[in-house]
Amino acid sequence: MSYRSDVLEQPQVLRALVQTYQQDSVWSLLAAYSQDLIILTGMGASYNALYPAWVYLNQQGKTALHLETSTLIHYLPAVLDTPCLIVAVSQSGESIEIQRLVEQVTTRRRHLKSPVLISVTNSAHNTLADHSDLALPTHAGPEVGIATKTYTSSLLVLDWIAKALVEKVQPQDFEQGNAIATCMQTFLDHCPTEMADAFKALKSSIYVGIIGRGPALATAKNGALILKEGVRLPAEGYSGGQFRHGPREMVSANIGLVVLTTPGSTLDLHLRLASDIVEYGGQLVCLGQSGVPGSVTLSLPAVEAASLYPILEILPIQLLAAQLADSKGITPGKFRWSGKVVHQE
After folding, report:
1. Cα–Cα dist 176/303, whole Å
2. Domain residues for 91?
3. Which stretches in the chain have pLDDT values below 50?
4. What is the number of H-type helices and E-type strands within the chain?
5. At 235, which helix (H) or strand (E)?
6. Which of 203, 199, 205, 198 is CA-nearest to residue 282?
7. For strand 255-261 and strand 207-212, is the pairing parallel, antiparallel, or unpaired?
8. 44 alpha-carbon distance from chain centroid
9. How far apart are CA 285 and CA 194, in angstroms?
């Protein structure tokens, strides 16, 4: 087991996930929940994976909060006193913040205040899953420290959960899951020659910024997390709007930037930002379906389900992280100061 093998296994994991859930009765059970408030919570990669579902639910008229579990349990526990549905994501189901959340939910149930708890974890049995009203394991299998297949499988399950909560999960949603898996496999089998150019653009960077909007902000945040964990490279994920409000002042030749040129309503805004970064002298990689002169462009195929695009667009960043780690003599996933499961707040 290695970081690279985890990355390569993702299409197989996603196909197995479709096979597991496409006929499952859990979707009709989810559709029956009508709480006015939905809380989406997790930490690390699990927190990032919730972002597209948060966007979708609010677009569909639901009131959904996207909160780090640490913030929820320490600063906003009163939210749990209101009728709500919690969607909690944790690869292990055992991290310290998740255990604290389970304790708080259990206490409220004793006093007849019962938040509904839905969980997405890697395995069927763990602290979070065992205390959930509905548990949806991804069965992604063992994984090194960096979340790869657990992250992309969580994104897929969360897409189905979000659609079920607005009573819109359809057979084509599972077909689109298989389609994303096929796109990932095609990219892995025919890795574009531009990958080498993207590696060269970022190899000497002392800092990398990844910029997205909408659901792609999940990719920006989690891509930066992978670079910090796996390459020990300072990195940050930004929304395109926030990047213009100050951070662009740091652009220089030793700063690497990845602009996610995701199809959609804000594509033109990101292409304009990409052009500005080239003009400022930054090392730029455009990742998506478009690029600008002076950048390295990593093209991704178009997909029918825009909400699933983050599953595909994280893949080149995962591969780049492996190359960058190799160039620094680092084994990605071999942590120095932390572990796969965080046991201390």
Report:
1. 8
2. 3-187
3. none
4. 15, 10
5. strand 235-239
6. 205
7. parallel
8. 9
9. 10
Whether 135 is covered by a domain: the verdict is: yes
Residue 290's nearest CA partner among 310, 266, 307, 314 is: 266
CB-based burial label for 341 (10 Å; 0-12, 13-18, 19+): middle
Report the CATH number at residue 121.
3.40.50.10490
pLDDT at 56: 95
pLDDT of residue 158: 98
Residue 337 has a pLDDT of: 63
Domain count, the chain: 2
| Same domain flag for 157 and 265 | no
- Choose among 85, 98, 144, 154: nearest CA to 122: 154
Q: Phi and psi dihedrals of 334, rounded to 5?
A: -95, 95
The pLDDT, as a whole number, for residue 331 is: 79
Angstrom CA distances, 247 to 1, 36, 117, 257, stand at 38, 37, 38, 11
223: closest CA among 307, 291, 314?
A: 314
What is residue 188's predicted lDDT score, i.e. its pLDDT?
93
Question: pTM of whole model > 0.85?
Answer: yes
Bridge partners of residue 116, in order along the sequence: 85
pLDDT, tens digit, 9 for 90 and up, residues 160-169? 999 999 987 8
